[in-house]
């Protein structure tokens, strides 16, 4: 979790965009909490929660 970002929009649990699954893999699909945040110090926006690289 990126603590410098203040949550702005919470999209809820989302699947990874580039994970192309076969129908038998749907039950084990990885989801993460997609929250967009804003950093006042840098005027940057970004994801508050990042997806682990192994996913």
From TrEMBL:
Gene3D superfamilies: Methyltransferase, zinc-binding domain. Residues 2-54 form the Methyltransferase putative zinc binding domain. It holds the Pfam family Methyltransf_13. This is Methyltransferase putative zinc binding domain-containing protein. It comes from Candidatus Kaiserbacteria bacterium GW2011_GWB1_50_17.
């Amino acid at each position: 979790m990126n603590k410098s970002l203040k949550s702005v929009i919470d999209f809820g649990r989302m699947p990874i965009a580039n994970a192309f699954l076969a129908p038998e893999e749907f039950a084990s699909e990885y989801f993460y909490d997609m929250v967009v945040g804003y950093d006042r110090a840098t005027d940057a926006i970004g994801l508050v929660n990042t997806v682990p690289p192994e996913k």
